[in-house]
From TrEMBL:
<protein>
    <submittedName>
        <fullName>Uncharacterized protein</fullName>
    </submittedName>
</protein>
């Protein structure tokens, strides 16, 4: 393992993820996400969006701030997907949630952090899509063949 992989794994084992809307991979690659909400004033329906914005690395993020890490807690165990476990929970602030894929030895494969979801309370896999439900009943759908494909439904 290289230095970055060891660093990411050490942070994960201590219960930390980058506390920004992003996907972090075991090799230190980060995909920063843009997230925003719109409202249809005719129907008063809110719509949440999450999409990849750019690629970076953990080293690059820490060049600008070494305080990017947020404590995370895993809720309600895990679910199995092939040779991986999917775990989920919350961040340090009440508005944060995350989902992560690990191997059977709890080595991080990828994690997605959300600053808007509140804690992720449950998850299930349906047709190779990871469906996460937050405390606010926000439904976050993640395509497991391409984890950058994420859709969000509020109060599903």
């Amino acid at each position: 393992m290289n230095k970055t992989v060891n660093y990411i794994q050490d942070k994960w084992e201590k219960g930390f993820l980058p506390g920004i809307d992003c996907i972090v991979f075991e090799d230190g690659k980060i995909i920063i996400a843009n997230t925003y909400k719109t409202i249809d004033y005719n129907t008063l329906e809110n719509k949440q969006y999450w999409f990849p914005l750019c690629d970076t690395t953990i080293e690059s993020l820490e060049n600008y701030s070494d305080d990017i890490w947020t404590k995370v807690d895993i809720f309600n165990g895990s679910i199995t997907h092939g040779n991986e476990k999917i775990v989920f929970g919350d961040g340090s602030m009440g508005n944060e949630g995350f989902v992560a894929s690990t191997d059977r030895d709890n080595q991080l494969k990828w994690a997605i952090f959300f600053t808007f979801s509140n804690p992720i309370l449950k998850a299930e896999i349906v047709n190779n899509e990871l469906i996460c439900i937050s405390e606010l009943e926000t439904k976050i759908s993640i395509h497991l063949n391409n984890v950058t494909r994420i859709s969000i439904s509020e109060n599903y």
